[in-house]
């Protein structure tokens, strides 16, 4: 009964979380009728149509994470689980063309159970030992009521007048006391064993999951990172894995123990007194039902409270990270009000939750004590009529309390399991996400034969997250080896997009980009970005660590000599040496704050250390003052010498000396030539020059 209620509750919970879709069967029918016109009646057991197999497989696999839960609930839940999952989504996924966006979901094809098993199997020894220890512990627990009953009977015997004289108190109680002491010691040992073994296995699994998820993030395409908020990705890496780990450990230890204990105690209750068991059996389901109802509404409140807490954190994060903007707009009162509103809401919900939990626990106490009273009341009568002895009454009481405790811990576990399974599914989803581009596969051009000839041939491109908007509409551009080509044009024309394509952050939808005649798609992206292309942008990003570590980021195995030479060529050596700790100066949050120009020069040194054949400069000097710009421009001149360079510029004054200037408009290259040629042409470039001259 309890298990049935548990499973019902579980299904309801999953429904609420939209893991189960109540209309899924209907939806399947509709989807299939509309899309395949093959299925009249959907009967899972008889369908043999090819399309349905993968769907069923997906449905099953996406529910395997719920499997752990099923064990502790019941077979009824298995039915629910097999019918779960938004099947409409599955059908649509079969049909949708393979956009990058759906890449993650497509991986529902990946066998979840096998995947999770891969993690479990590595920890099979500690896990099996933990299970054995938990079972032994539960068996010990079941013996305790009986042993307590023996003790009571012995005490009872001693208090009877005929035994009072001449009986040795200590001798009489020796056996039951020793029995109890050894049971308590064994119980402590098994508890120690399974908790430490589970902790060992759980921590190893969590650590491996974290490493795998982080690796997955590092290997994802740029568009994956475009589409997901940084905070959400970090959340999966931290709190989701934490939730999954805690619930895994708790469900396995506590769930196993409580379930075994419940069954064991029911058996011992029944063997002690079938009549009293009947009294208990009528009250417990009622208690569980009331508990489940209150528990469900508490969980709803708790979910809401979590959401508000997350909103408050996000707001605080945003404001602290963008403090300068808040200050610049004098919007401190506004932000304070916003934050106060969110936290007050969260506070109220948590207060309601507190009232609910208090009422729940109060009611539980009354109910549990009522049961004890009821059992004593009915049991006393049975003792009086000599159907049972006082010892049996005692063991009955202890057993029934054990059942209540196990059931209440199972009901708490149930919530934990739902949270853990959801968190685990979220973690697996991203670990399984397959990038379109594998970062190290494809050809490499030997360094000595690499010329650096880049050619765009009728390149069309749309960002995967905006498939309706064509950003590049047939770009043609020839960048000869060791030449400097500047891209200019109005904002939004697609200049930065061209640079992203050269770095292979994205691939063109049609047309081709070649390096020395080889399509970029055939080249190893890791080789391309790692040693062939250097990129310097407007806002250089420095990592926490020393200046030397930041320069070395360009080539981690570079000797110190090369690091310093790169810094010298980038006009950075002198200011670095002026710091008391020189190259060992820590930059970033807790270190020295560097000026924009200094950061830029360190970034140039970093690019220079890489010694790339192709250099991309995305408005590298636009954020600097005149003096910094002179120093940076001077450094850039060193870096550009002897390399193919693509400059993306807004300020036309910086690109006058470029070998070729290409003007972009609305996703196309519309003018190509030198500064003088384009000026004479009297087209867009000439207009832009006039516009800028007027502004200056
Ligand atoms: N990650 C992205 N996802 C979706 N659309 C994007 C993305 N980046 C740019 N776009 C869109 O592509 C178009 C071209 O942007 P791009 O940044 O290439 O232009 P730009 O010429 O470099 O502009 P600016 O000089 O202002 O930097 C714009 O309409 C922009 O909204």
TrEMBL record:
Read off the PROSITE patterns from this record: ABC_TM1F, ABC_TRANSPORTER_1, ABC_TRANSPORTER_2
Q: Which InterPro entries match?
A: AAA+_ATPase, ABC1_TM_dom, ABC1_TM_sf, ABC_transporter-like_ATP-bd, ABC_transporter-like_CS, P-loop_NTPase, Type_1_exporter
Q: Does the record bear Kinase in its keywords? A: no
Could you tell me the superkingdom of the organism this chain comes from? Eukaryota
* Keyword vocabulary terms for this entry: ATP-binding, Ion transport, Membrane, Mitochondrion, Mitochondrion inner membrane, Nucleotide-binding, Potassium, Potassium transport, Transit peptide, Transmembrane, Transmembrane helix, Transport
Membrane-traversing stretches: 276-298
Topology versus the membrane: Multi-pass membrane protein
Coiled-coil portions: none
PANTHER family linked to this entry:
ATP-DEPENDENT PERMEASE MDL1, MITOCHONDRIAL, MITOCHONDRIAL POTASSIUM CHANNEL ATP-BINDING SUBUNIT
What CDD domains does the database record attribute to this sequence?
ABC_6TM_ABCB8_like, ABC_MTABC3_MDL1_MDL2
UniProt keyword annotation of Mitochondrion present? yes
Can you name the source organism?
A: Clavelina lepadiformis
Q: Gene3D superfamilies from the entry?
A: ABC transporter type 1, transmembrane domain, P-loop containing nucleotide triphosphate hydrolases
An example Pfam family from this entry, by short name, is ABC_tran
Instruction: Kindly report the protein's main subcellular placement as a broad class.
Output: mitochondrion
Q: Which family does it belong to?
A: Belongs to the ABC transporter superfamily. ABCB family. Multidrug resistance exporter (TC 3.A.1.201) subfamily.
Q: Where is the ABC transmembrane type-1 domain?
A: 129-419
Q: Which compartments is it annotated to reside in?
A: Mitochondrion inner membrane
Q: What is this protein called?
A: Mitochondrial potassium channel ATP-binding subunit
Residue stretches making up the ABC transporter domain: 454-691
């Amino acid at each position: 009964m309890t298990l049935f209620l548990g499973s019902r509750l579980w299904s309801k919970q999953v429904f609420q979380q939209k893991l189960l879709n109540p209309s899924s069967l209907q939806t399947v029918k509709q989807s299939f009728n509309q899309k395949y016109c093959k299925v009249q009646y959907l009967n899972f057991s008889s369908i043999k149509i090819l399309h349905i197999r993968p769907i069923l497989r997906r449905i099953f696999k996406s529910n395997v994470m719920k499997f752990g839960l099923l064990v502790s609930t019941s077979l009824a839940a298995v039915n629910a689980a097999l019918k779960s999952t938004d099947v409409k989504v599955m059908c649509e996924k079969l049909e949708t063309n393979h956009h990058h966006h759906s890449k993650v979901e497509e991986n529902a094809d990946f066998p979840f159970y096998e995947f999770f098993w891969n993690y479990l199997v590595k920890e099979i020894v500690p896990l099996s030992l933990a299970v054995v220890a938990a079972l032994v512990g539960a068996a010990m627990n079941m013996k305790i009521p009986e042993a307590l009953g023996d003790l009571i009977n012995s005490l009872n015997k001693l208090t009877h007048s005929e035994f009072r004289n001449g009986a040795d108190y200590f001798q009489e109680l020796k056996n039951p006391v020793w029995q109890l002491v050894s049971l308590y010691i064994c119980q402590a040992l098994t508890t120690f064993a399974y908790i430490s073994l589970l902790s060992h296995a759980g921590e190893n699994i969590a650590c491996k999951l974290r490493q795998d998820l982080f690796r997955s993030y590092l290997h994802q395409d740029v568009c994956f990172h475009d589409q997901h908020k940084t905070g959400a990705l970090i959340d999966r890496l931290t709190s989701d894995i934490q939730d999954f780990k805690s619930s895994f450990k708790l469900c396995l230890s506590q769930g196993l123990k409580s379930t075994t204990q419940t069954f064991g105690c029911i058996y011992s209750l029944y063997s002690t007194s079938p009549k009293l068991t009947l009294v208990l059996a009528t009250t417990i389901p009622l208690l569980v039902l009331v508990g489940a109802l209150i528990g469900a509404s508490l969980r709803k409140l708790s979910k809401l409270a979590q959401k508000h807490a997350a909103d408050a954190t996000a707001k605080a994060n945003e404001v602290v990270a963008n403090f300068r903007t808040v200050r610049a707009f004098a919007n401190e009162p506004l932000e304070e009000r916003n934050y106060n509103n969110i936290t007050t809401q969260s506070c109220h919900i948590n207060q309601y939750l507190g009232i609910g939990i208090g009422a729940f626990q109060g009611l539980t106490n009354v109910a549990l004590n009522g049961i004890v009273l009821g059992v004593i009341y009915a049991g006393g009568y049975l003792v009086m009529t000599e159907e049972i002895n006082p010892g049996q009454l005692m063991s009955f009481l202890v057993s029934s309390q054990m059942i209540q405790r196990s059931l209440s811990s199972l009901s708490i576990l149930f919530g934990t399991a739902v949270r853990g399974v959801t968190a685990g599914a979220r973690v697996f989803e991203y670990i399984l996400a397959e990038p379109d581009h594998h970062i190290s596969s494809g050809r490499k051009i030997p360094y000595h034969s690499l010329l650096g000839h880049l050619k765009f041939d009728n390149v069309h491109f749309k960002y995967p997250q905006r498939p309706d908007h064509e950003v590049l509409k047939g770009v043609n551009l020839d960048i000869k080896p060791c030449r400097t080509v500047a891209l200019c044009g109005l904002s939004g024309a697609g200049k930065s997009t061209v640079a992203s394509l050269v770095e292979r952050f994205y691939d063109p939808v049609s047309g081709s980009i070649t390096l020395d005649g080889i399509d970029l798609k055939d080249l190893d992206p890791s080789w391309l970005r790692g040693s062939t292309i250097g990129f310097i942008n407007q806002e250089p990003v420095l990592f926490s660590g020393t200046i030397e570590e930041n320069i070395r980021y360009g080539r981690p195995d570079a000797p110190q000599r090369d690091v310093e030479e790169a810094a010298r060529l980038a006009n950075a050596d002198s200011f670095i040496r002026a710091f008391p700790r020189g190259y060992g100066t820590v930059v970033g949050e807790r270190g020295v704050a560097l000026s924009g120009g200094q950061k830029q020069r360190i970034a140039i040194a970093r690019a220079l250390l890489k010694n790339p054949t192709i250099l991309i400069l995305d408005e590298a000097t636009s954020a600097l003052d005149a003096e910094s710009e002179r120093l940076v421009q001077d450094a850039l001149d060193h870096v550009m010498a002897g390399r193919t360079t693509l400059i993306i510029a807004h300020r036309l004054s910086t690109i006058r000396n470029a070998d070729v200037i290409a003007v972009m408009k609305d996703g196309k290259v519309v003018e190509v030539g030198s500064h003088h040629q384009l000026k004479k042409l009297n087209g867009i470039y000439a207009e832009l020059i006039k516009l800028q001259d007027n502004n200056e």
